[in-house]
Amino acid sequence: MSKIDWDSLGFDAYRTRTVVKSHFKDGAWSPVESTETFSFTLDPFAQVNHYAISCFEGLKAFTQKDGKVVIFRPEENARRMKRTADYLGMPCPSEEMFIKMCEDCIKGNLEFLPPYGHKASLYLRPLLFGVHPQMQLVPYPEAVFAVMCAPAGSYYGEHLRTFTAVIPGDFDRAAPHGSGSYKVGANYAATFRPYKMAHDQGYTELLFLNSGTREFVDEFGSSNFFGIKDNKYITPLSDSVLPSITNKSLQTVAEDLGMTVEKRPIPLDELDTFEEAGACGTAVVITPMARIDIKPVLGAEEVTRSFVFRPDNTVGPACNALYKRLTGIQFGEIEDTHGWCHKVDL
Length: 346
Ligand code: PLP
Ligand code: COI
Fold this sequence. Notes:
Layout (H helix, E strand, L loop, with lengths): L18 E7 L2 E2 L3 E3 L11 H5 L2 E3 L2 E5 L5 E4 L1 H15 L6 H13 L13 E10 L12 E10 L10 E6 L16 H5 L2 H9 L4 E5 L7 E4 L3 E6 L2 E4 L9 H12 L3 E4 L12 E6 L3 E11 L9 E4 L8 H14 L10 E3 L3
The chain binds pyridoxal-5'-phosphate and 2-OXO-4-methylpentanoic acid.
2-OXO-4-methylpentanoic acid (COI) binds next to loops.
């Protein structure tokens, strides 16, 4: 294996060594298997192939300043996967099994765990997919749960700099009363084409409004939205956004920094009033936005409105402080007073 350049890692499906997996069938999970075979065998009629019965999680393991290895809030991801699995009518591993398999995945891929000092982590991808062969549209208690991982640096290619986003007038992410707040793979399928169109026009992110009335800000395709004004951290309250663990953590961090936190619907017009705005999530960490445009038709030229937060493209003071504190806790540079870092015994 060639040596990994820890400082230039992006966010890619890196081919690591071990995948950890278990199969739920006949009412029980099979003994957990650590395998170096990087493939799954599926029945052509498997639920996942036809009906997208699949969900996933994303969480990170860090090597801290003192050499400890920790996973950031894994119990939150375990609970969120259970919520999504229930939505899809799937069996789901217990919190204990979820965390143990994440730990086993780290242990089976230690050479890919970035050392301290490179702003990099080991991204863990727990995946749950329905494998029962069927045609009927009914749940069936059979699934594979697997945890894979990849060394990860910056999602957008650079840490903590501003990017631009576009609000597409002709694409929605999730239906009202639909799957928006669950981490189902199908939610992401709906964003591939608009992402390509946005990227081709120089935008990094897609910001979606609430699909019914399109009056409120929901979230980015990859992450939650937050805005900053008057020393307040403001983030959408919506049934259609994924309950982000990073966002939940940032709300606490913002309070620790003396900010007021508001979780409420954010009318589109309010974007004009924010001093800073950004995306937050495990992959994107905190990504400040310099500008967000509205395009009624994503593929056409016309921009009907632009919200400019950082005219000079600099990172604002609040985003900077939030980023420093969150990543400081993750890397063990700042005391973990909230008990978020789960130590892995190697
Ligand atoms: N929103 C969406 C659509 C996501 O895919 C993610 C990533 O997981 C998030 C928000 C952020 O969630 P978290 O902070 O738990 O990673
Ligand atoms: C994560 O942040 O863990 C995600 O799952 C985002 C990914 C869909 C880009």
